[in-house]
């Protein structure tokens, strides 16, 4: 596999993780699939943060290369694709949940959303298990 | 506070977290301080991944703006600074630990380091508490 960044491979597990998903847009795509049930290119484009088409295309390609997502022909529309998280992708759930918990403490913006945080606080292990199962 | 990216603020806690630390180099600097006990600009420069000086300078500035790190005059060398994690920065520990655990499952590279993973598997809550205390 060719390196995706000019960073040297150090053997560090944090560095490895960041090579795979340590990009804002990459984790937002994973969020769209994992928490918002989005499946298609055009659904990802509608995410609130306004991802650009060229970034979305490159990140989806990279997520496929890293075996975080798998792409299938949409059975309802054979010209388009649906994306699913692999087990490797679903196993990112605890990282996502910890980010939500941390932001719940430090995000003071008036429009901060708290639905996912409340689900986690109510039943973290149940919620996490559901995300990991897909 | 002015936006750091061209991403729209969506109120999503994951998006908030990624705005603050969702950059490969930013989390690597946090790793250097939290897990490797590094404190100074020149120590960060020596990290195995080979961070460039311009990136290091910009990320340290951003980490200060986001109150993840605090900068003090080095008592041993008044011309230089030492960096410490704030409570907000140390509270990123569970995210870092989940990244280490995930990479421990999926990082098959022969040089993958496993010391931190083993510490976590031996006594996660003790290790996490130590990191959070600083």
List keywords for this structure.
globular, disordered N terminus
Describe the structure.
The structure is a homodimer of 134-residue chains. The first copy, chain A, has 7 helices and 2 strands. Chain A is mainly α and 134 residues long. In chain A, helix 6 packs antiparallel against helix 7. The interface between A and B is large, with 49 and 49 residues.
Mean pLDDT of chain A: 89
**Biggest beta sheet summary of chain A:** 2 strands, antiparallel
Question: Spans of chain A of 5+ residues with little confidence (pLDDT < 50)?
Answer: 1-7
Number of strands of chain A: 2
Largest sheet: spatial strand order of chain A: 1-2
Biggest interface found: A-B, 49 and 49 residues
> In percent terms, what proportion of residues of chain A is strand?
5-15%
**First-last Cα distance of chain A:** 27 Å
Helix content of chain A: 55-70%
Which oligomerization state do the chains in this entry correspond to? homodimer
SSE order of chain A: HHHHEEHHH
Spatial extent as radius of gyration of chain A: 16 Å
């Amino acid at each position: 596999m060719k390196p995706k960044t000019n960073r040297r491979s150090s053997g560090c597990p944090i560095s490895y993780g960041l090579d795979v998903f340590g990009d804002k847009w990459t984790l937002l795509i994973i969020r769209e699939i994992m928490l918002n049930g989005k499946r298609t290119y055009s659904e990802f484009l509608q995410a609130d943060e306004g991802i650009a088409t060229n970034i979305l295309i490159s990140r989806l390609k990279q997520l496929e290369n890293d075996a975080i997502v798998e792409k299938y022909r949409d059975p309802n529309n054979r010209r388009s694709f649906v994306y699913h998280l692999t087990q490797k992708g679903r196993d990112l759930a605890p990282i996502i949940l910890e980010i939500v918990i941390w932001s719940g403490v430090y995000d003071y913006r008036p429009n901060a959303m708290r639905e996912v945080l409340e689900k986690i606080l109510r039943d973290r292990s149940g919620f996490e298990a559901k995300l990991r199962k897909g």
